[in-house]
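Course assignment 3, question 2. Fill in each field.
Student: A.L.
Task: Predict the tertiary structure for the chain below.
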Amino acid sequence: IDCEACGNYGRPLADVVLDERHPAAVALEISSFQLETIDTFRPDVSVWLNFSPDHMDRYHSVEEYRAAKLRIFENQTEGDTAVVRLGEEVGVLRPSRVTFSATEEGGDFGLRGTTIHAGHETVLDLAETRLRGIHNAENVM
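Answer field:
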């Protein structure tokens, strides 16, 4: 996939947009601070890895912080996709949901030994990579 990582990670999105070479896709890390002010931002695919209280110097409560993070799904439609870690409470979503987990059964993607599976199909054997640890397995999923 012709894709470039940008946003909080990688190049600024504005640089990618203004570049003569336009990738087919961007993997954009967007912060809760940025999500607070979205109006029409709508990712084709959003990813919710996990939630833990953070930035409590900015937010008055965990609920306020969580609400800001959940805005990632706000403008998505039925034709979009939300990738969500199995067991994460994100409420009812308009986009289709794809789930993953390295520790729980029942997700669309899962880990058996060192192998990532989508149902009965092997997607990747982590033993063939330099990635180690459950957190990296879930990041790949």
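Instructor remarks: The chain has three domains: 1-30, 38-98, 102-141. Helices lie at 13-18, 32-35, 62-70, 134-140.
Grade: pending
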